[in-house]
Amino acid sequence: MASSKPYVPDQAMKIVQSAAETLVLDGTVEQANIGADYISMWPIETEGRAREIAAAFHAALYGLQRLHMAVPSQREAS
Questions:
Q1: What is the rounded CA–CA span in Å between residue 65 and residue 7?
Q2: C-alpha torsion 48→52→53→54, nearest 10
Q3: For residue 43, how far is the Cα from the chain centroid?
Q4: For residues 21 and 12, what is the distance between their CA atoms, to the nearest angstrom?
Q5: Between helices 10-25 and 47-70, what is the axis angle to 10°?
Q6: What's the whole-model pTM score?
Q7: Cα(23)–Cα(17) distance, rounded to whole angstroms?
Q8: How far apart are CA 52 and CA 66, in angstroms?
Q9: What is the DSSP string of the chain?
Q10: Which tens digits make up the pLDDT trace of 7-54?
């Protein structure tokens, strides 16, 4: 999944990275990489499970992006 959508703050990306690490630790995937504009994970046992994981990460990132746009940071509010 790649995105050029609005910026997601570092604190929010830590949540996404933590979720990816959990999938590696529990054996769901062997490798996971998170970048500024991509998420890759492999191998995933079934297409259905891959779609489920992709949808969850997409929803999380989209929601975090929308929240970041809607709620000004403390720096911006000062």
A1: 7
A2: 100
A3: 17
A4: 15
A5: 160
A6: 0.79
A7: 10
A8: 21
A9: -B--SS---HHHHHHHHHHHHHHHHTTS-SEEEE-SSBEEEE--S-HHHHHHHHHHHHHHHHHHHHHHHHS--HHHH-
A10: 778 888 899 999 999 999 999 999 999 987 889 999 999 999 999 999
